[in-house]
Design brief:
Layout lengths: L4 E6 L6 H11 L4 E7 L4 H10 L11 H10 L8 E4 L3 H13 L3 E4 L7 H14 L3 E3 L7 H11 L6 E9 L4 H4 L2 H5 L6 H4 L4 H17 L3 E9 L10 E8 L4 E7 L8 E8 L2 E6 L6 E5 L5 E3 L8 H5 L11 H16 L12 H19 L5 E2 L2
Parallel strand pairs: 1-2, 1-3, 3-4, 4-5, 6-9
Antiparallel strand pairs: 6-10, 7-8, 7-14, 8-9, 10-11, 11-12, 12-13
Helix pairs in contact: 1-12, 4-5, 5-13, 10-13
């Protein structure tokens, strides 16, 4: 019998980009075997998609209740061990809660839920059940992001004194100016997306990344959000000022109406000795900046990188890796945790990070609605 971790997936079928990313990522390192799931809400489409990727129909289920019931009938050596939740935001909580209560490990897309209260309930339930729960803040899987984190932890840039993240996209620009289109986009529907679009979708990536690489805990924020039209209840652009531990200050600028931008995510951490800068669209380059010296460019795969960076590098220097590889590194970290192997705490984003992300989303909206005032992050 295969020693691979048996994986189930909820969502991510048909033409889903995120579904492709997760399936390819899980296949890296030979740690997982996809054995079943629910890929589409329409069961006929569900079965058709499963067949197209080579899965037998007997473990493709019509709903989550049936999946749980049928899988628990199988022996521990055969049943699904971990389930990836790739559905729209409003389904995350109920699905993850059901999985936790029945002993399945969980890998969940972000944002974790649609409310902080739901996220806190999941956190408590997962702790009680002692299961592994990962939240896919995918960019933390890039080797040079992990290198950035290790360099800061080891004092290369000195005492952190400013944190800065910019995440600009333009995809919603053609939609937001058309009344009918914006009414029919699930990202702009609070019943499916939650209370925030831009901050909930990409701003939370920036929040997580800044804490992940810098070691700073963000303690309070002041947000100024933009809806563009009065009948659009969801933010699609925003600026958030940050105050963190050790009196560190910073800013997150996020937008989905940055016309012409594709996926421009930049992270900059400045210390009293040096600064580090990383750009998602050029992920193989980490820039080290020191006063009076030429900028140094660090790249993955070289011996000067940290153990966690090298562990996440699959190819020799000069061979670009990308988003699939970053997600694959997260799946590898989860596999180590499930298998009770030794792993670095930075190998995958955990449930606490998902919980803090939800708190950040709600507090950003609260700060904006209260007239752009400072509010505390729990």
């Amino acid at each position: 019998m295969s020693s691979k971790i048996r994986l189930g997936i909820l969502g991510g079928g048909s033409n889903s980009l995120i579904g492709v990313v997760h399936r390819i990522a899980s296949s890296m390192f030979d740690k997982y075997q996809l054995v079943g799931g629910i890929f589409n809400s329409n069961h006929k489409d569900n079965l058709g998609f499963a067949k197209s990727i080579g899965l037998p129909s007997n473990r493709v289920y019509s709903d989550l209740d049936i999946l749980v019931t049928e899988e628990l009938k199988l022996s521990k050596e055969k049943r699904i061990q971990v389930v990836s939740v790739l559905t729209p935001n409003f389904l995350h909580y109920s699905m993850a809660k059901k999985l936790i209560e029945n002993g399945f490990h969980v890998i969940c897309e972000k944002p974790l839920t649609t409310t902080y209260a739901e996220a806190k309930d999941l956190f408590n339930a997962a702790e009680k059940a002692n299961i592994i729960f990962a939240v896919t803040y995918t960019y933390t899987g890039y080797p040079m992001v992990r290198q950035m984190r290790e360099m800061i932890l080891n004092g290369v840039i000195g005492k952190v004194q400013k944190i800065d993240a910019q995440y600009y996209q333009g995809w919603i620009n053609p939609i937001i100016h058309d009344v009918e289109k914006r009414k029919n986009t699930w990202r702009l529907n609070p019943e499916k997306s939650g209370i925030s679009c831009c901050i909930g979708d990409i701003g939370t990536h920036a929040f997580n990344m800044l804490e992940y690489v810098s070691g700073v805990t963000i303690e309070s924020i002041l947000a100024d959000l933009n809806h563009v039209y009065e009948d659009n209840v969801m933010d699609i652009d925003g600026t958030v000022l940050l105050r963190g531990t050790n009196k560190v200050k910073g800013v997150i600028c996020a937008s989905q109406i940055a016309t012409g931008e594709e996926n421009d995510f930049q992270v900059k951490i400045y210390g009293d000795k040096a600064g580090l800068k990383w750009e998602q669209e050029n992920p193989n380059y980490l820039y080290l900046m020191e006063e009076g010296k030429p900028i140094q460019t660090l790249k993955p795969g070289h011996e000067y990188n940290s153990a966690i960076s090298l562990d996440g590098t699959k190819l020799p220097p000069g061979h670009p890796e990308g988003i699939f590889d970053a997600m694959g590194n997260i799946y590898k970290g989860v596999a180590r945790a499930i298998n009770n192997e030794e792993y670095n705490v930075g190998e995958f984003p955990n449930l606490l990070e998902g919980l803090r992300g939800m708190n950040f989303i709600e507090k950003s909206v609260e700060s904006h609605k209260r007239g752009n005032v400072w509010v505390s992050i729990e």
